[in-house]
Amino acid sequence: MTDTHAIDTSNSAHDDEHHGGSISTYIAVAIALVFLTACSYWTYTPFWPFGDNVAIKRLWMMAVSCTKAMLVIMFFMHLKWEANWKWVLTVPASIMSMLLVLSLIPDVGRRFQHASHERMIYAAERPALEDTRQDEEMDLEEPLIQLHSPDEKTPVNH
């Protein structure tokens, strides 16, 4: 008679490999994350070999950040050991997010071309006006409406 409640321990190492890594794997990933953090900090030290070129620093830090995110996602979120269904969920979502970002770039780039006068006054940054006639037409120093202070009940009119 066979015991149905007996536990088979012969594949325990294989199960660890399938459902998550070992402690040594997690320690190696943690050390890699510390090293990559030091690589990001390296851009602010005098030992950085590429000078003060901000574009190269940003490119380096984005590459390091993406590598760190990949390590966290693969190992600490256990996606390395998941089945292939993860691609069915992540690839379409990634494509849609990239399309959203790319479709918003022209809108953000042209946000001041057709803005109202009131919007231009209260904008966070004022664009450099190319046409001097536009500069004369739009008095950007005086707002159309002066907002009242919190203690006053009505707007201030001049």
TrEMBL record:
Cellular component per GO, a single term: plasma membrane
Keyword Transmembrane helix part of the UniProt annotation: yes
Cellular compartment(s): Cell membrane
Region (Disordered): 131-158
Residue ranges with Acidic residues bias: 133-142
Transmembrane segments: 23-47, 59-79, 85-105
This protein's UniProt keywords: Cell membrane, Membrane, Transmembrane, Transmembrane helix
Topology relative to the membrane: Multi-pass membrane protein
Ranges of compositional bias, category Basic and acidic residues: 149-158
Family matches, as Pfam families: COX4_pro
InterPro entries: Cyt_c_oxidase_su4_prok
Name of the protein in its database record: Cytochrome c oxidase subunit IV
Origin species: Adhaeretor mobilis
